[in-house]
Design a protein that fits this description.
58% helix; 0% strand; mainly alpha; 14 helices; elongated
């Protein structure tokens, strides 16, 4: 999440592809604020939701917090005002339970619990943000938007703009995707968030058949640049750009980008399968050396 208190909620979860995430290409492919990589599939894939995220290892146990982080508790108290004295116990317990359910990726339970927190304290940003993300991860694009829009209005944050963009993309609203990206770009976001929004926009343009425009958007932003120590966003950019290159027929460039991803992380996304599907690069014919046989 955006603010420090909200981000505390996620620290216990591997939001990698969505990461998932934020998240196959999100939707399994779903996206989050930080948008650690998802389990990318193809960028035009809309099955099951942001990027967005990779499941925690089976052996890993994410425990429900016994109490709320202090900053989230303070946020709720401030939003509730004088009513906090009456609401504290019930709302704190439910917020902690909602956080725990979200961390375990039990998004249906998280949404049900967090909805009661939002009803009790409607102007607290964190429960709105988590409620919207929980609905997003279930593929409830339309239901996710009001909570995320209210979160943005209350905080002025653009951290969840990529999620909102992806919801509008799923609902077939490319103009809203473009408009939200402009807001995101002007909001001086973290590089991870801006990168994630750009990937959503590229996917939207590709959905409309504008593969050249999608590729140009990423290339002009430096998404294809070789980086010595790539961060998560570089792997996502290379993967998505490789997918677009493959779809536009440039198999050599697609292979090169997928190889970069595999070199940095052999288990990233489905890159191994994508390389297998592309097959080995064509052998280069040797040019006969005519000078050797000349008399």
């Amino acid at each position: 999440m955006a603010r420090r208190g909200a981000s505390t909620v996620r620290d216990g979860v591997d939001h990698g592809p969505d990461e998932d995430t934020p998240e196959g290409r999100r939707r399994r492919r779903t996206r989050t604020d930080e948008f650690v990589p998802e389990q990318f599939v193809r960028v035009d894939d809309r099955s099951g939701a942001p990027a967005g995220r990779s499941r925690p290892p089976a052996h890993r146990v994410v425990r429900e917090p016994e109490e709320l982080p202090a900053d989230i508790a303070q946020e709720l108290a401030t939003a509730a005002g004088p009513d906090w004295n009456f609401l504290r116990d019930r709302v704190s317990e439910r917020m902690a339970a909602g956080i725990g359910a979200y961390q375990r990726e039990r998004y249906r339970d998280a949404a049900r619990i967090l909805r009661t927190v939002v009803e009790a304290v409607p102007n607290a940003p964190s429960p709105l943000e988590l409620l919207g993300l929980s609905q997003y991860h279930q593929g409830n694009w339309k239901a996710a938007l009001p909570s995320l829009e209210q979160f943005a209005a209350l905080t002025g944050s653009v951290d969840q703009h990529p999620v909102r963009m992806d919801c509008h993309r799923a609902l077939g609203r490319p103009k809203r995707v473009e408009a939200l990206f402009e807001e995101l770009r002007k909001g001086s976001p973290d590089p991870e968030v801006l990168s994630e929004g750009r990937l959503v926009l590229a996917g939207t343009r590709a959905d409309l058949g504008d593969l050249d425009g999608a590729v140009r958007l990423l290339v002009d932003a430096g998404a294809g640049r070789l980086v010595k120590n790539p961060a998560e966003r570089h792997l996502r950019q290379w993967y998505v750009l490789g997918d677009l290159m493959e779809r536009s027929g440039d198999l050599a460039r697609a292979r090169e980008l997928f190889l970069r991803v595999r070199a940095a992380d052999p288990e990233a996304y489905d890159v191994a399968a994508r390389l297998d599907a592309l097959g080995p690069p064509p052998r280069q014919r040797r040019t006969p050396n005519r000078s050797r046989g000349a008399r």
